Description:
By secondary structure, the chain is mainly alpha-helical.
Amino acid sequence: xxxxxxxxxxxxxxxxxxxxxxxxxxxxxxxxxxxxxxxxxxxxxxxxxxxxxxxxxxxxxxxxxxxxxxxxxxxxxxxxxxxxxxxxxxxxxxxxxxxxxxxxxxxxxxxxxxxxxxxxxxxxxxxxxxxxxxxxxxxxxxxxxxxxxxxxxxxxxxxxxxxxxxxxxxxxxxxxxxxxxxxxxxxxxxxxxxxxxxxxxxxxxxxxxxxxxxxxxxxxxxxxxxxxxxxxxxxxxxxxxxxxxxxxxxxxxxxxxxxxxxxxxxxxxxxxxxxxxxxxxxxxxxxxxxxxxxxxxxxxxxxxxx
Length: 306
């Protein structure tokens, strides 16, 4: 069931203004707990068995989340819009993403507190941060901002809009499963296959919207996005990341270390490596892209049949 764009916009506005209450357990924690229990119980045996178990795990977790959202949608529809908004904003992360990246940016301001900046960026990236210099910290934060603009903002709003609370909850379950078990390394190579492929599929359209929004508000970056997006190992993450690189006229990507292992990643864009100023510019683009999303939802609300 598609959601009224005004309700989607209201949920986005609530999360954008207030963020998620820090003392309130996030629903993603419950999804993660279920995934951990299922993984411990089912992720063993041969490759085929583990792949089948991964498919079952994804069906159970995403199905339960989607069913919960569907029942809530049906129960709340028409008489408790405010409760729908309260439920839906838990699946959005625009304010949270901004706050985390802004904390990195503040730590890199003149008179940079590099240890604080490393600690702040470690909250939002999976790479090793202990040896990063200012440029490396800024690049890691900006890459996370671009990629998470899709995962935490555009894609949840997209699935909320087209599928209601059920679509939003199902997306969050799939995205959480991908982040926890959708890895190519053991012990998740087979078990997490379904989660990774489902996440790829659900982000196919939103990632391209996210990249397009970044290029739109910057007035440039289209050529870089179209040329470099396919370099990324993910079929989706390269779109907003390449768009951000082209929009700022900088280079993103390149070598990075994960759990002590060096990875020679592709580069996106041309020009110099990042400075702390570029991170602030990226945050400005992010806010403007979020504003364009809000305007689009408002226009959709005006056209929504009553």
